[in-house]
Amino acid sequence: MPDVLIYGDTIRLPELRHEVPVPIPDPFLYAEKGKRRIAVLHSLEIPRVREDAPDLEIVPLEDLGSDELFTQGLQGWEVMLELAVRACRELGIERATVPESFPLGHADHLRANGMELVVDRDLFDDRRRSKNETELHGIRNAQTACEAALDASRELLRRARPNGAGLEVDGEPLTCERLKRVIEEVFADHQVEGSDMIVSHGPQTAVGHNMGSGQIGPDEPIVFDLFPRDKTTGCYADMTRTYVVGEPSDEVKEWHRLVKEALDTSTAGVKPGVNGRRLYEEVCEIFHGAGYKTQLNKEPGEVLEDGFFHGLGHGVGLEVHELPSMGRIGHELVPGDVVTIEPGLYRAGYGGLRLEDLVLVTKDGYEVLTDYPYDLTP
After folding, report:
1. Cis peptide leading into 324, omega within 30 of 0?
2. DSSP state of 358
3. CATH: 3.90.230.10, 3.40.50.2300, 3.10.450.50, 3.40.190.10. Which one for 133-368?
4. For 265-277, how does the pLDDT look when each residue is reduced to its tens digit (9 = 90+)?
5. What is the C-alpha separation between 377 and 56, in angstroms, rounded?
6. For 291-320, what is each residue's pLDDT tens digit?
7. Quick count: other Cβ atoms within 10 Å of Cβ 152?
8. What's the CATH code, domain 4-126?
């Protein structure tokens, strides 16, 4: 294995959070030399890392001469650059592989001092594919929060009544914003954060990433796409359900039937070694047979706004979108992957319907992490 360097904080950098499972807001240097795994840390962080990641070797900044550097009147960033050079020399690292997120300033300074750095995105993406137990625990907790939030949302939907302008509950308009506030309260109770979410209605649901706004009306599709982040582990879940308060149209009912069939078919095909593109192709075949366009049967250059215009799914973990891909580009699934299965059908200007589950790839098949009904009415 090559020597490795990562520089950043574990709040925003998934490559580093995977190696150091402790929320550290300030940037620091992490290194791998042979079998050694080393974190170069300020004393402020040492006790937590020692407790929560006891397998890591810790090098305090003072061991590299930080006190001496500060007495020279250097700026903080200058001190950190020099400490990175000293750490590499102390560890005997002359050539290292780094993620594409490695800071340019640090890279320039290390190279100017004789270090050779090589960017290898695949190395750092692939090492996060198989989730460890800590990460799986966080994903499961975030998924539980999704399901509890949908319970609370569906309770409001069940109590909703038309008022002429749309739906209301307890004399107040039922809006996307009101539902999002309810969801955020549930998320807080489950120690997850997820202020970014999709709660959209009507024609908004035909636009895959329209976050949703305004008063919801009767008889129109309402899409809930929730992807909260577990606060303890930094790991995400991702889940989608679609509802109609009132009477769904025949078109929406047919979408629901087809999308559920696509979800069931593709989930049943999940196992190690299967390429995500193959699962995507199977779903597209179902939709093609029903007369809908997908990215595989549209005309070259055609901008697709109707039918099935996105991929089947993606990996979920320390990022809400990560490898493997399951679309026109596909990766072979490996044990420990956590992936979404999220087929959908849409018609621009009218609406859309999407269902999404989380699936863990096991040694001999799969486990569906989502445990929630698929009813079209709340």
Report:
1. yes
2. E
3. 3.90.230.10
4. 999 999 999 999 9
5. 50
6. 999 999 999 999 999 999 999 999 999 999
7. 14
8. 3.40.350.10
